From TrEMBL:
One Pfam family linked to the record: MreC
Keyword Cell inner membrane listed: no
Keywords per UniProt: Cell shape, Coiled coil, Membrane, Transmembrane, Transmembrane helix
All residue ranges annotated as the Rod shape-determining protein MreC beta-barrel core domain in the record: 128-277
Organism from which the protein derives: Selenomonas caprae
Protein name per Swiss-Prot or TrEMBL: Cell shape-determining protein MreC
Length: 316
């Protein structure tokens, strides 16, 4: 039964195919002959019969043309979007590179200004290239070493203040121990002229981002907001480099001394470029000017000789 139904369907398909071929040939012959002779009256009937086929063919052609044009537009728009996305990505990368270069230039310009201002120091610029994995918060690695004149115990600074000192100096890289390291010890003094209280700044294990100033006498003149600078004691750090500000004060466990919690002058989380002090020359003191002397009480030999000569020339 199924074979018979299949044969019937096949025969119907063949019939329709033959009719389609005949109609197509007729249309082709008609359109070819149309331009060569005048169609008789009987051909008008054929035109009337073939008109629906012509309209169908025309509609199919227009649809095919429309679909082809739409596909081409889609392909073109897709390619244009791809090109625009690539251009946007390139511009984004260029913008990021330009912003990074601008920020780096600004940092280096600031460091250069600091080096030109601090004439008592010879300094070498360096870039932070890593942190010691064992002591992440207290030791950094810079891209300068012995070939650049960098050696152990040299002071490391930025334009804002003290960073630390060279812990190990390799040939082209060095390790820097930050003042945040509990193993570090920096001799410091209160910058305020009325105070000048000395102490030691070292890192705190319980608060690794804020060092402590210890060994402060209980009755010492130290208040919150005081600027703490290096004292120059010990020989490692030159005198007068800013360490930080006193954030708070508290008594130590014994009750005889005070501890000052410091806010570092340097933001160690954003540390990218530093300066290594390779040579330090303390600024020469200003010459002492003697006080004005009243006549007859001169202690300067030159002044006394001048007074004696004046007395000889004008005897009374």
């Amino acid at each position: 039964m199924s074979n018979r139904v299949r044969k019937d369907k096949d025969s119907h398909r063949k019939l329709w195919a033959v009719l389609f071929v005949i109609v197509s040939l007729f249309c082709i012959i008609f359109f070819v002959a149309r331009g060569r002779f005048q169609a008789p009256v009987s051909s008008k009937a054929a035109l009337l019969v073939l008109s629906p086929f012509q309209q169908a063919v025309s509609w199919v052609g227009s649809q095919v043309s429309h679909v082809t044009g739409s596909i081409w537009e889609i392909v073109t728009v897709h390619e244009q979007n791809k090109m625009l996305r690539n251009e946007v990505e390139q511009l984004r990368v260029q913008n990021l590179e330009a912003s990074e270069a601008l920020a780096e230039n600004e940092r280096l310009r600031t460091l250069l200004g600091y080096r030109q201002m601090m004439t008592q120091f010879d300094m070498v610029g360096a870039r932070v290239i890593g942190r010691d994995s064992a002591t992440w918060s207290s030791v950094i690695i810079i891209d300068r070493g012995q070939k650049d004149g960098v050696n152990t115990d040299m002071t490391v600074v930025t334009e804002k203040g003290l960073v630390g000192h060279i812990l190990e100096a390799g040939w082209n890289t060095s390790k820097v121990q930050l003042i945040l390291d509990p193993r570090s010890s920096v001799g410091t003094i209160v910058q305020r002229a009325e105070s000048r209280v000395a102490g030691i700044v070292q890192g705190d294990l319980d608060n690794p981002t804020m060092p402590q100033m210890v060994n402060i006498p209980k009755n010492a003149d130290v208040v919150e907001g005081d600027v703490i600078v290096t004292s120059g004691f010990g020989g490692t750090y030159p005198k007068g480099i800013v360490v930080g500000l006193v954030s708070s004060l508290q008594n130590d466990s014994g009750g005889l001394l005070k501890i000052g919690l410091l806010e570092p002058a340097v933001d160690f989380q954003k540390l990218e470029d530093v300066m290594v002090i390779t040579e330090s020359r303390e600024a020469p003191p200003e010459p002492i000017k003697p006080p004005a002397q009243t006549p007859g009480t001169e202690t300067d030999p030159a002044a006394q000789a001048a007074a004696a000569k004046a007395a000889e020339e004008n005897p009374q």
